[in-house]
Write a structure and sequence with these properties.
Keywords: Lyase, Magnesium, Metal-binding. Substrate binds at residues 76-79, 98. One of its GO terms (biological process) is regulation of RNA metabolic process. Mg(2+) binds at residue 99. The protein is 17% helix and 34% strand. By secondary structure, the protein is α/β, with parallel strands linked by helices. It has one domain (6-153): Ribonuclease E inhibitor RraA/RraA-like (Glucose Oxidase, domain 1), CATH 3.50.30.40. The radius of gyration is 14 Å and the shape is globular.
Length: 163
């Protein structure tokens, strides 16, 4: 796990980074995280999120386009713990999470719009590793995302913290 400081990365790589519009809150046990983008596009159905947390996430960040829905939580404590145990660096959710008190203690970066105690239906719907767009940025699978309390940035290539 590396510590990333998004203002420093923006200063070091101004031509590479795109800044996501401010909208996310930091809920995870890791204050900063980054890695290769793996996307999920789903709406009020976290079936694909559940499938992905069961895979090896070493060096990866799951970016979930939940359509900005605030009506259901796309991540809860059990999925967050599974993601952490499978090496995921973090999860960014354009939507809601729940079980925030447990997630704050989990070794996983988690950013989301808000919290909602209501779980989703599991209908098996959603797409994995497709381009998703929100916050003025397109998230491309295989590119890189970095997040901390300052915000979320995207880069076409891996970035390293300046010395």
């Amino acid at each position: 796990m590396s510590d990333y400081v998004t203002p420093d990365l923006c200063d070091e790589y101004p031509q590479l980074v795109q800044v996501v519009e401010p909208m996310f809150n930091n809920y995870g046990g890791r204050e900063s995280f980054g890695g290769e983008i793996v996307t999920v596009k789903c709406f009020e159905d976290n079936s694909k999120v559940k499938e992905l947390v069961d895979t090896d996430g070493t060096g990866k960040v799951m970016v979930v386009d939940g359509g900005g829905s605030l009506r259901h939580a796309l991540l809860g404590d059990m999925l967050a713990e599974k993601a952490a145990s499978n090496g995921w660096e973090g999860i960014i959710i354009y939507g809601c999470i729940r079980d925030v008190d447990v997630i704050m203690e989990t070794d996983l970066g988690v950013q989301a719009l808000a919290t909602n105690p209501l779980k989703t239906d599991k209908r098996g719907l959603g797409d994995v590793n497709v381009e998703v767009k929100f916050g003025g940025v397109t998230f491309v699978p295989g590119q890189f995302v970095y997040a901390d309390n300052n915000g979320v940035i995207v880069s076409p290539e891996a970035l390293s913290m300046p010395a």
